[in-house]
Amino acid sequence: TANGRAVEAGCKGFWRHYKNIDALCDELDLRPFTPYTSSAFYSPAGKEVQAPILGDLPRLPTPFGTLLYTSPYFTNLSIEDRLSALPLALDLLQYDASDASYARYDTMSAREVFVDGDRGGASPALYERFLAPILCALMFAPPEELSAAAAMDVLYGYVLAHQDDFDVRWCKGTIAEEIFQPWVARIEAAGG
C-alpha cells in the first residue's frame, strides 16, 4: 500500500492436514502461525455456527464427532433442521472415492444429493443457510453447479476425514513475509 503495508489477495487458513507446509516451516525453523482457533461461519442472516477447536475434544468416529460437537453451536437452525443432515451423513459414509462411487455421484449435482436425495435431504433452512454457502466458499460455485462427487470430496477432505480437520490457524503476517521470503533467502544462501 501507499503506507508500505503488505497486502495479499484473499485470506488463507492453514489446516491440520497441511503436512507439507508444516514440514517446510519446521525445516526452515519458522513459526509463522497462530495457535489453532475457533472458527465461525456466517451467512447473510448472520453467524450460523461457531465451531469449537475440535482437536481439543475427545475423538469420536467421523463424521459423528464433528456433527455432535458443532451441533449446539448452530444458533439459527432448529434441532429438526440440524437432524436433517443425517441422510447426508449416510451418503458421505457410502461415498468412498472409488472409480465406481465417483462415477455414480458425479452424474448428480450436490444440490440433488443434499436436498433431493433418495433418503430425503437437508431441510431448506440447513441447505440455504449452511450447506450451500459453505460449498460455495470451499469450491467457488453454487451446489447446483457442482458435481456431488466433487462436493463430497471437498467436504470429506476439509471437514469429515478426521474430527480435527476443520481446525484452522492463520499466518501471523503475510504468507510472503512469513514463509516465502525466508524460503527464498535459504535457497539463495545455498547458491540457488
Structure at a glance:
The protein has helices spanning 19-27, 64-70, 79-83, 86-94, 99-106, 110-116, 124-139, 148-160, 175-189; strands at residues 13-15, 39-43, 46-51, 168-170.
Strands, helices and their partners?
Layout lengths: L12 E3 L3 H9 L11 E5 L2 E6 L12 H7 L8 H5 L2 H9 L4 H8 L3 H7 L7 H16 L8 H13 L7 E3 L4 H15 L3
Antiparallel strand pairs: 1-4, 2-3
Helix pairs in contact: 6-8
Q: List the secondary-structure elements in sequence, H or E.
A: EHEEHHHHHHHEH
Share in helix: 40-55%
Structural class: mainly alpha
What is the number of E strands?
4
Strand ordering within the main sheet = 1-4
Strand fraction band? 5-15%
Task: Tell me, rounded to a whole number, the average pLDDT.
Answer: 86
Number of helices: 9
Rg, nearest Å: 19 Å
Uncertain residue ranges: none
Q: What shape does the CA trace take? A: globular
Task: Note the main sheet.
Answer: 2 strands, antiparallel
Termini separation: 30 Å
Characterise the protein shown here.
With 192 residues, this protein is mainly alpha-helical. It is 46% helix and 9% strand. It has nine helices and four strands. The strands form two sheets. A two-stranded antiparallel ribbon has the order 1-4. A two-stranded antiparallel ribbon has the order 2-3. A hairpin with a 2-residue loop joins strand 2 and strand 3 (46-51). The longest helix is centred in the C-terminal third of the chain and has 16 residues, at 124-139. The protein is globular and about 60 Å long. The model has no long low-confidence stretch (mean pLDDT 86).
